[in-house]
Write a structure and sequence with these properties.
The complex is a heterodimer.
Chain A (H helix, E strand, L loop, with lengths): L2 E4 L2 E4 L6 H7 L23 E4 L6 E4 L10 E3 L3 H17 L4 H10 L18 H9 L6 E3 L6 E3 L14 H5 L28 H5 L22
Parallel strand pairs in A: 1-5
Antiparallel strand pairs in A: 1-2, 3-4, 3-5, 6-7
Chain B lengths: L6 H17 L2 E6 L2 H5 L2 H14 L6 E6 L11 E4 L3 E3 L7 H9 L9 E2 L6 E2 L6 H4 L17 H6 L4 H7 L3 H11 L11 H10 L6 E6 L8 H8 L1 H15 L3 E7 L3 H17 L14 E7 L8 H8 L23 E5 H13 L1 H5 L9 E8 L5 E6 L4 H8 L9 E6 L5 E4 L9 H6 L8 E6 L4 H15 L5 H18 L5 H17 L3 H5 L2 H9 L1 H9 L14 E3 L9 H5 L5 E2 L7 E2 L9 H5 L5 E3 L1
Parallel strand pairs in B: 1-2, 7-8, 7-10, 8-9, 11-15
Antiparallel strand pairs in B: 1-3, 3-4, 5-6, 11-12, 13-14, 13-15, 16-19, 17-18
Helix pairs in contact in B: 7-11, 7-14, 8-9, 8-11, 10-11, 10-12, 11-14, 18-19, 19-20, 20-22
The chains are: A alpha+beta, B alpha/beta.
Bound molecules: flavin mononucleotide (FMN), iron/sulfur cluster (SF4) (3 copies) and FE2/S2 (inorganic) cluster (2 copies).
The site of one iron/sulfur cluster (SF4) has 12 residues of chain A, from helix 4.
């Protein structure tokens, strides 16, 4: 079994595991977005970056794709790692500010401002839907087309797919599809500030009304309290 | 031709072909590379054929169509051997005169190359500064042989290295390549012998090799020229490599946009197969190997090795995590050794002439030669092969002749779109893998773009970023979104809309994109930004603080005006302005209506009195 050191912990990781597998086994938290345990590894969102190597020859790799190998030294939360992860999230959230998943992550990671102009796109090209459709639903109804800034997800030739069973698995897994709380118009790209304050603010805003997001006061989607 | 089954057969065939090759004293070689073809070189060939026939010289003159000679800008090129008389920009009409003079032992003066720096007419290939400092190994037969003829290749010593290699042990070949110090010519410079060894050591009875001729860098055509001009050298290198590695199947991945390279490679594979140099039991050695040619779909990222392998497998070419490296787990999951065209083409020369000879050329860490395509603001542009360790200055001035029109050279971009801009102050830097990386650039595939004082470095960075944002495969957030955002900020800077915070963000983002991306494309994409920031920061600041483009390039920040003192009222500008932005009566000073002007610069180009000023 390959012997690795992860955040100072020596660990005999089973052959075929990724760094992420090992970290999770040891209870080390690494944020992920495009990764799903039941789907093939992708390595696109770059949120699960960790630093490997020692001394001057270290580099960042995506832990969800990097296989464990003997003698590997991993650090999951160095300054370099955090800085890169935050930049990834800033890029993602400016691309698609309406995603609840991204807003929650931003709050958790302590992103305080977004310096890029919002693009208000609906998709972050994480590829989860494509892999879900192909690997779990065995349909292969959708895929990537084009590249660079013209990349899109669609059916072959944009025609209604004959193999699509309308199962909705793609929507189920999509991190962009659940919208952020629209209760009160957030001031800018970021909302999710509610996770940063000790008291949930939705209770005051909505009072006795039902919250369509579910668990009132706990979902952590509400806007930050107005500063007085 | 008859299939040959032993090394002795091959040597016998060679002797026969050499006799034939040497039978005619005079040899006229017309360049049939893509560059010269587009300048009607095939019509020149037809003219030669006709004229030679009508003069009854068929038995005296050997007419050949070769691959690229490297000096495409001067094409169509004709070289007459054995004297090596060099004719440039030859038109079909010139042919009778060339032949008439040739029979009298004279040259056609007006077709000779004139050195732009001295005004001297030069007669021989080897005296032309563009060629004088070159050292040609990979390109040595380009321009000498007919790439569609395996006979030519064999007559000039081809497949000799293969015969030698088949008498060596695979391990000995790998040792020889390791000792030669050959490093990958595809960009990253990984030691080739080591890569072969790793692939050889894998436990698998099926192994593959691949030749990477995707060459997606804009403006680069080194790989194309090698495959077009001397396909057998690549094939010979691949057979030797396959034997050393223990692979029985190879692929040549050529981009679809290179029809001539595809044609010549296909033909060469066919010829080698017919002759028994590919297929079962090569030269009676018991070793079998064959090659298939795959046409690539023309995305820059297809050149990245893992994406390329996906493309051969018929999948979407997205780079994937390495490790596992292709040498461990490559094509169809089998160990696969992938090398660049020029890497493979170096192999026969190393085997034939020995590792010591090869490693005597170059620097401590970078051995042999490197092929560059030298383009941009230089007097002599084209394909050059130089020893590693030559300085940028020698490349730009001695070979390239410096910038035209008396302008000053400002910088070079080395390493393709994601290389780095190196300023003039650093031109004494020797070109090798390490030195280039140290100054923020990279060897890359070998594109060299020369920029003069009229180049805006912010605009340059923006230009490359546009290419990269279009060519990112779109998988990584860092690369896909990062290149788009860098492009956005660079655009804002060139339009005078950016602040110093934006500049800071650009720098921060560039450093993260380099760090966080999955494949080489994203990891190197920030280089043009980071190097221009490192060496030309004051230009960025001029755009941001003073809303001024020092080089007079960025349209939003410049203004065209006419100096009334200098304007003679010749009316040239008014007539040529595409939008009618210039007013003025003949013989009176003209002026430009700023609201209408689209800043195309035509007026400045047509004004003979230098009256149009950019500010
Ligand atoms: C974006 C990108 C494009 C590349 N394009 C090419 C190419 O066109 N030709 C090439 O030989 N290598 C290219 N490479 C490098 C290959 O991935 C690989 O390293 C090379 O083919 C290995 O051969 P070598 O060891 O002979 O250099 C590219 C790499 C990247 C990241
Ligand atoms: S549609 Fe959703 S799941 Fe599919 S790529 Fe876009 S963000 Fe990911
Ligand atoms: S770095 Fe760019 S080109 Fe490479 S895998 Fe990521 S998105 Fe694709
Ligand atoms: S720059 Fe072009 S558009 Fe402007 S005045 Fe001159 S010719 Fe006309
Ligand atoms: S979770 Fe690893 S790159 Fe997205
Ligand atoms: S094509 Fe003729 S010199 Fe390059």
């Amino acid at each position: 079994m390959p012997k690795i050191i992860i955040d100072g912990i020596e660990f005999d990781a089973p052959e075929g595991w990724t760094i992420l597998d090992a970290a999770r086994f040891l209870g080390i938290d690494i944020p992920t977005l495009c990764h799903h345990d039941e789907l093939s590894p992708w390595g696109g969102c770059r949120l699960c970056l960790v630093e490997i190597g020692e001394g001057k020859k270290t580099k960042l790799v995506s832990s969800c794709t990097y296989p464990v190998e003997d003698g590997l030294v991993v650090r999951t939360a160095t300054e370099r790692v955090i800085k890169a992860r935050k930049m990834m999230l800033e890029l993602l959230i400016s691309q698609c500010p309406t995603s609840k998943v991204l807003q929650d992550m931003a709050a958790k990671m302590g992103i305080e401002k977004v310096r890029f102009k919002p693009k208000w796109e609906d998709c972050i090209y994480c590829g989860l839907c494509v892999r879900m459709c192909e690997e779990q639903m065995m349909a292969k109804a959708i895929g990537f087309v084009n590249r660079g800034d013209k990349i899109r997800i669609t059916t072959p030739f944009d025609k209604t797919s004959e193999v699509c069973r309308k199962c909705g698995a793609c929507m189920y897994i999509c991190p962009a599809i659940v919208l952020r709380c629209e209760g009160a118009e957030p001031k800018d790209v970021l909302c999710g500030g509610c996770l940063n304050v000790l008291q949930p603010t939705c209770l005051e805003v909505y009072g006795e009304y039902a919250c369509w997001m579910g668990l009132k006061g706990e979902c952590g989607t509400c806007v930050r309290e107005e500063e007085s | 031709m008859r299939r040959i089954t032993s090394i002795a057969d091959l040597e016998a065939l060679r002797r026969k072909l050499q006799e034939k090759y040497r039978a005619k004293k005079l040899r006229i070689i017309v360049c049939g590379g893509t560059g010269c073809r587009s300048n009607r070189s095939m019509e020149v060939v037809e003219a030669f054929k006709k004229e030679i026939k009508s003069l009854g010289l068929e038995n005296k003159i050997d007419l050949k169509v070769s691959g690229c000679h490297g000096f495409c800008e001067r094409g169509p090129i004709v070289v007459i051997h054995p004297e090596q008389i060099f004719y440039q920009r030859v038109k079909p009409e010139d042919v009778p005169e060339i032949l008439e003079r040739l029979t009298r032992g004279e040259v056609v003066d007006r077709l000779l190359y004139e050195d732009p720096n001295t005004g001297r007419k030069i007669k021989h290939v080897y005296e032309i500064p563009f060629y004088a400092k070159q050292k040609r190994i990979v390109l040595s037969k380009n321009g000498l042989i007919d790439p569609t003829s395996i006979e030519d290749y064999i007559a000039t010593g081809g497949y000799k290295a293969l015969a030698k290699a088949l008498q060596m042990k695979p391990e000995e070949i790998i040792e020889e390549i390791k000792r030669s110090g050959l490093r990958g010519r595809g960009g990253a410079g990984f030691p080739t012998g080591k890569k072969w060894e790793i692939t050889r050591m894998q436990k698998s009875d099926v192994k593959y090799i691949v030749c990477n001729c995707d060459e997606g860098d804009p403006g680069a055509y080194m790989d194309r020229s090698v495959l077009e001009g001397n396909p057998h050298s690549v094939i010979e290198g691949m057979i030797i490599g396959a034997y050393a590695i223990g692979a029985n199947k190879g692929w040549i991945y050529v981009r679809y946009e290179y029809p001539l390279a595809v044609k010549h490679a296909t033909l060469a594979v066919h010829q080698a197969r017919e002759l028994g140099l590919l297929g079962e039991n090569i030269l009676g050695s018991g070793f079998s190997f064959d090659i298939e040619i795959v046409k690539g779909a023309g995305a820059f990222v297809c050149g990245e090795e893992t994406a390329l392998l996906q493309s051969i497998e018929g999948k979407r070419p997205s780079p994937r995590q390495r490790p596992p490296y292709p040498a461990e787990k490559g094509l169809f999951g089998k160990p696969t050794c992938i090398n660049n065209v020029k890497t493979w083409a170096n192999v026969p020369y190393i085997i034939e002439r020995g590792a010591d000879w090869f490693s005597s050329i170059g620097t401590k860490t970078s051995k042999g030669t490197k092929v560059f395509s030298l383009v941009g603001k230089v007097k002599n542009s084209g394909l050059v092969e130089v020893p590693m360790g030559i300085t940028i200055r020698e490349l730009v001035y001695d070979i390239g002749g410096g910038a035209p029109d008396g302008k000053k050279v400002k910088a070079v971009q080395i390493g393709g779109p994601s290389g780095g801009c190196i300023p003039e102050e650093l031109f004494d830097l020797p070109i090798d893998y390490e030195s280039l990386t140290e100054v923020g650039s990279m060897m890359g595939s070998g594109g060299v773009i020369v920029m003069d004082e009229n180049t805006c470095m912010v605009d340059t960075a923006k230009y490359f970023m546009k290419f990269l944002k279009d060519e990112s495969c779109g998988k990584c957030v860092s690369c896909r979104e990062g290149t788009q955002r860098m492009y956005e900020i660079l655009s804002d800077i060139t339009e005078g809309k950016a602040s110093e915070e934006d500049l800071q963000l650009l720098e921060e983002l560039a450093n993260v994109v380099k760090d966080a991306s999955l494949c080489g494309l994203g990891q190197t994409a920030p280089n043009p930004v980071l190097t221009t920031l490192r060496y030309f920061r004051e230009e960025y600041l001029a755009h941001i603080r003073e809303k001024r483009c020092p080089a007079g390039v960025c349209k939003a920040l410049i203004k065209y005006t006419i100096d009334p003192e200098k304007c003679t009222g010749c009316d040239a500008c008014r007539i040529n302005c595409p939008v009618g932005a210039i007013t003025g009566k003949p013989k009176e000073p003209h002026s430009i209506i700023q609201e209408k002007c689209i800043k195309c610069g035509i007026c400045r180009d047509v004004c003979k009195f230098g009256a149009v000023i950019v500010s």
